[in-house]
UniProtKB/TrEMBL annotation:
Gene3D superfamilies: Medium-chain alcohol dehydrogenases, catalytic domain, NAD(P)-binding Rossmann-like Domain. One of its GO terms (cellular component) is mitochondrion. Residues 44-366 form the Enoyl reductase (ER) domain. SUPFAM superfamilies: GroES-like, NAD(P)-binding Rossmann-fold domains. It comes from Tetraodon nigroviridis. Belongs to the zinc-containing alcohol dehydrogenase family. Quinone oxidoreductase subfamily. The keyword Oxidoreductase applies. It is an enzyme of class 1 (oxidoreductase). This is 15-oxoprostaglandin 13-reductase. Its EC number is 1.3.1.48. Keywords: Oxidoreductase. The keyword Methyltransferase does not apply. Pfam families: ADH_N, ADH_zinc_N. GO terms for molecular function: 15-oxoprostaglandin 13-reductase [NAD(P)+] activity; zinc ion binding.
Length: 378
């Protein structure tokens, strides 16, 4: 059967260890699992990725075996499947950036900090699988396996760290957030409000605009019904001080053209180009140096993996805010999607489509649902 590996036999494990470190007692670890594998490089996720059956991996010494319960969808899942992240990576390779679940097995040195049954979240590759082996050092203990915590790992952390390190926000400044109702945008809106700023947020529907209002966004702009550049020009003649920019192309142009003196544009992404062959949207940049100079403005790039030093602090701050009810972590589990909620690994495909159709409100999350134990070897 194409796409299905021969039934995997679990590698021999020293049973004196496994009795301690693998959850065999609950006999809940099967020998095989489902995972998503990039088989062919393409920004078309459905063309690039296929569902496979594989052996449940065994954790090494400093690793955890995590049974994923929720996995997060990111705009860059299609950049990854197109091979744009790591040019040396050749298919087949595993897909997915982040997951949250339960520790079901672990290596000896990992057991100094973790034990079977712990709830952990992680930002690491290979998350689109029922089970993932993750280095213990990249895992974050979480109070419970809830999708809200998953929203913080990449989406929340990006907004928190980018605004803190590159935003230089001061009270009273004006901040423009693009794709504001999405996974990371929702956090940028809230952190900019917490900093005492006036916040403008772009989105593509009235429902999303209503959601942005509920987050405290002062001026949601539904660009499907009003022109972004014109609205900025007429309502913000002094310009905006900071832009948290995720869309690229003409949206980036509008942002650059409507900057205040000493304005900062933080380049978070350029999703409008990701589905194209180059991955890069068209941008008319010849006059960019002139515009930046005339306004003493700057364009700043941000890439989360470069800020690992800020990561733990960001996560603990956000977890605190969440527990005190000071942070909305909106999750889109597909309840309103045409074919219903995103349940099971197969629905990752639909979840990616949902995001690229601009339909998601909040962070797109897939529920892998507790697997039924049918092929346990015990
Ligand atoms: N630099 C980093 O380290 C880092 C980390 C995480 C995310 N990001 C970036 O943050 C951005 C948002 O990512 P996310 O995962 O949080 O996704 P998201 O915002 O939850 O979803 C993407 C949103 O972008 C808009 N959109 C979708 N397709 C589009 C298209 N073809 N053209 C224009 N807009 C489109 C839609 O919102 P509307 O329809 O409402 O506009 C959609 O809801 C991406 O650019 C991503 O690469 C960067």
């Amino acid at each position: 059967h194409p796409g299905v590996d021969p039934p995997a036999r679990r590698p021999i494990i020293d049973m004196s260890y496994s009795a301690h470190f693998m959850d065999f007692k609950g006999s809940s670890i099967p020998s095989t699992m489902k995972k998503l594998v990039v088989n062919k490089l393409s920004p078309d996720f459905r063309e690039a990725v296929c569902l496979r059956t594989a052996a449940v991996p065994t954790p090494g010494d400093a690793e955890l075996l995590v049974r994923n319960r929720f996995v997060g969808i990111n705009a860059s899942d299609i950049n990854y499947s197109a091979g744009r992240y790591d040019r040396t990576l050749k298919p087949p390779f595993d897909a997915g950036f982040e997951g949250i679940g339960e520790v079901v097995g672990l290596g000896l040195s990992a057991s100094s900090r973790y034990t079977v049954g712990d709830a952990v979240a992680y930002f690491s590759s290979g998350a689109f699988a029922e089970y993932t082996v993750v280095p213990a050092k990249v895992c974050v203990p979480v109070p419970a396996v809830r999708p809200e915590f998953l929203t913080l790992l990449v989406s929340g952390a990006t907004a928190f760290i980018a605004l803190k390190r590159l935003g230089d926000l001061t009270k009273g400044e004006t901040v423009l957030v693009t794709a504001a109702a999405g996974g990371t945008g929702q956090f940028a809106v809230q952190f900019a409000k917490q900093a005492g700023c006036h916040v403008i947020g772009t989105c593509s529907s009235d429902e999303k605009a209503g959601f942005l209002k509920s987050l405290g966004c002062d001026r949601p702009i539904n660009y499907a019904s009003e022109d972004l550049a014109r609205t900025l020009r007429t309502e913000y003649p002094r310009g905006v001080d900071v832009v948290y920019e995720s869309v690229g192309g003409s949206v980036l142009e509008a942002a650059v053209n409507n900057l205040a003196n000493k304005g900062r544009v933080i380049v978070i992404g350029f999703i409008s180009g990701y589905q194209s062959a180059s991955g890069i949207p068209r941008f008319r940049g010849e006059t960019l140096p002139v515009k930046l100079l005339q306004k003493s403005a700057s364009l700043r790039g941000f890439f989360l993996p470069h800020f690992s030093g800020d990561y733990r602090d960001a996560l603990s701050s956000m977890t605190h805010m969440l527990s005190r009810g000071q942070l909305v972590c909106e999750v889109d589990g597909g309840d309103l999607a045409p074919e219903g909620s995103f349940t099971g690994l197969e629905s990752v495909f639909r979840a990616v489509d949902h995001m690229y159709a601009g339909k998601n409100l909040g962070k797109v999350v897939v529920d892998l649902a507790p697997p039924t134990v049918s092929n346990s070897k015990l």
